[in-house]
Amino acid sequence: MPRNNKQNKAPADIKTFMEELRKPLDKGSELLLKQPQDWTEEEVLEVMKSQDYGAIGSPQRKRAFSKVQSWFEHHYGNEPVRHDSSGKMIQPKFKTLPNQRAVPVKTSDGYELPKAMDKIGKMVAQMAVQKGLSQAVGNLQTGLNVMPQLTQRQPLAPQLKEDGVFGRKTKDAMLSSLIEKGKSNTENALALGAFKRLIDDAKRRGDAIGLESRIDQTVGPLFGHKPSRHPRPTYKAWHEALQGTMNDNGVEICGQGGWRNLKEDGIVGPKTEAAFSSLAKRADPEVFAARICREMGLFGA
C-alpha cells in the first residue's frame, strides 16, 4: 500500500501544477499582456481602473501607465491639447480608429496565449513524470534566467529563484517570455535550463553517469521522443548534436593536449559521458549550455 501512495504523489503534484498554470488572469493583468494599440476603448478604460495602474510608485504602475500613454498617442497623436476661445478644451478626434472588437492575447510568434501556456505546461509535466516536478520547474526557471544570453536582449523580469516552485513570479516570467520571445523559444528554454543543470551537476559530482537517459528525459520531448521501458543505445539526432558541440568546443575549453575528438555517432555511451564530465569541470555552464542548444537548432543560428 505505501508503495502505491508514493507512486500517486507525483501525478497529484503535476495535477496541482497544471491547475495553477491554467488559472485565468485577472482582466487588468491579461490586458497588459496585449500590445496597447490592439486595445478597444473599453479595454483601455479597464486598464486605467486596474490594480496595476493604481499602484502609485510601483514598477507595475510604470508599465501600465506607459502602455496607456502609448494607446492614446497611437490613436490620438501626441499634439498639444487645443482650447477654444473660451478656454474650454477641444475634444480631440481619433487619428487612427481603435479596434471595435477585442482580439485575443497572442505570443510573439502568433499563438493564442492560453494554448501556448498549456503546451509549455504539458512539456513540464512530461519532464516531471520522469524527473519530479521540482526538477522540471527548476529546468524552466533556469532556462528563463539564461535565455536572454541567447536572444541578446535584456532580461524580461528580475532573475527567478531556481527553487523548483511554480509560484507567481515564475508564472509571470513564463507569460512575459511567451509574449516577448514566443512559444518556440519558451519551449526551448526548458532544454536550455536542463542542459545548464546537467553541466552544473556534472561539475559538482565529477562525473556524467546516466547522461543518455537524463538528456532523453529532458530534451527528448522537444524532438518527439517518448521514453521506453526497455531503452537500448540507438542513434538520436540530439545526441549527435551534443557530440558535435563537444568536439567544436573541446580544444578551446580543455586545451590542445587535453581533448580528443569523439566519434559523432549519435549514441551517448561511457566515452561521451567521460568527455562531457571533462568539459563540465572547465566550461562556463551558461555559455556551454547555450552552445549545445544552438547546435541543436533550438534558438536559431
What does this structure look like?
With 301 residues, this protein is an all-alpha fold. The chain folds into two domains: 34-104, no CATH class; 113-295, no CATH class. It is built from 14 helices and no strands. Helix 1 runs antiparallel to helix 6 and helix 10 packs across helix 14 (285-295). 32% of the residues are buried.
Q: Report the sheet-strand fraction.
A: under 5%
Mean pLDDT: 88
Please give the largest β-sheet. Answer: none
Structural shape: elongated
From the N-terminal CA to the C-terminal CA, the straight-line distance is: 52 Å
Features:
301 residues; mainly alpha; elongated; disordered N terminus
Quick rundown:
The protein is an all-alpha fold and 301 residues long. The chain is built from 14 helices and no strands.
Topology:
Elements: H1 2-22, H2 27-31, H3 41-48, H4 51-54, H5 59-76, H6 113-131, H7 133-146, H8 148-151, H9 168-181, H10 183-205, H11 211-218, H12 237-254, H13 270-282, H14 285-295
Helix pairs in contact: 1-6, 6-7, 6-10, 7-10, 9-10, 10-11, 10-13, 10-14, 12-13, 12-14
